[in-house]
């Protein structure tokens, strides 16, 4: 996503954002969720374009052998779920598209409701008559805290016999500019 000239942030000019990271900035989302939803249409993990790879199935094998304590992922693509990793074994550190909530009244919305809007390039709105707030997938935007599930298992590292880190540098370089 962050590869120079070819990564996600390098290809956001068409959204006319004040800075590339605004696409995932919660303050900007509150002001204008349309760029995020146009991008979400391109990235949505509907299973037709993106598929789990051998690493996802390796983790599922660990689960099947009952030796997986937890899988922590920073990915929001849902490929772990597609591969069959049970939600009880999964800590999605940057959240998930599997659930969504209204940013105004916090009503929960299903993945199906969110998916229909995303695939139609629409900004989903709350169905509560008095609300009409914007529905946001439960992914973590800049300016939001990591999900409670990320913090609720502090003993995992101490209990693990083996820790496997793959597919990440465990770093995020973030350059921010003020929203104008």
Number of helices: 7
At the third CATH level, what is the topology name?
SIR2/SIRT2 'Small Domain'
State the low-pLDDT regions, or none.
175-180
Into how many domains do the coordinates divide? 1
CATH A-level architecture: 2-Layer Sandwich
Strand order of the largest sheet: 4-3-5
Gross morphology: globular
According to DSSP, the number of beta strands is 5
Give the gist of this structure.
The chain has 180 residues and is of the alpha+beta class. Helices cover 27% and strands 12% of the residues.
Any overview of this molecule?
The active site is at residue 94. This is Deacetylase sirtuin-type domain-containing protein. InterPro entries: DHS-like_NAD/FAD-binding_dom (IPR029035), NAD-dep_sirtuin_deacylases (IPR050134), Sirtuin (IPR003000), Sirtuin_cat_small_dom_sf (IPR026591), Ssirtuin_cat_dom (IPR026590). Keywords: Metal-binding, NAD, Transferase, Zinc. One of its GO terms (cellular component) is nucleus. By secondary structure, this protein is of the alpha+beta class. It has a single domain, classed as 2-Layer Sandwich (SIR2/SIRT2 'Small Domain'). It is 27% helix and 12% strand. The chain contains seven helices and five strands, in the order αααβαβββαβαα. It has helices at 26-31, 34-43, 54-64, 79-82, 111-119, 148-151, 156-159; strands at residues 71-73, 90-92, 95-102, 108-110, 135-139. A three-stranded antiparallel beta sheet has the order 4-3-5. A two-stranded parallel sheet has the order 1-2. β3 and β4 form a beta hairpin. The chain is globular, with a radius of gyration of 17 Å. Residues 175-180 have low confidence and may be disordered.
């Amino acid at each position: 996503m962050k590869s120079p000239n070819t990564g996600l942030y390098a290809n956001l000019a068409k959204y006319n954002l004040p800075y590339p990271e605004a696409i995932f900035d919660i303050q900007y989302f509150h002001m204008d969720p349309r760029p995020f939803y146009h991008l979400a249409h391109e990235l949505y993990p509907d299973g037709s374009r993106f598929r789990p790879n051998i690493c996802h199935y390796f983790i599922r094998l660990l689960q099947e052998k009952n030796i997986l304590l937890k899988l922590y992922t920073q990915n929001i693509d849902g490929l772990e779920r597609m591969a069959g990793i049970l939600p009880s074994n999964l800590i999605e550190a940057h959240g998930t598209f599997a659930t969504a909530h209204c940013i105004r009244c916090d009503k929960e919305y299903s993945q199906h409701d969110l998916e229909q809007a995303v695939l139609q390039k629409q900004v989903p709105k709350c169905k509560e008559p008095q609300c009409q707030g914007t529905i946001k997938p439960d992914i973590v935007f800049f300016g939001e805290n990591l999900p409670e599930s990320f913090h609720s298992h502090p003993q995992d590292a101490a209990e693990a016999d083996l820790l496997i880190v793959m597919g990440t540098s465990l770093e995020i370089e973030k350059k921010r500019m003020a929203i104008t």
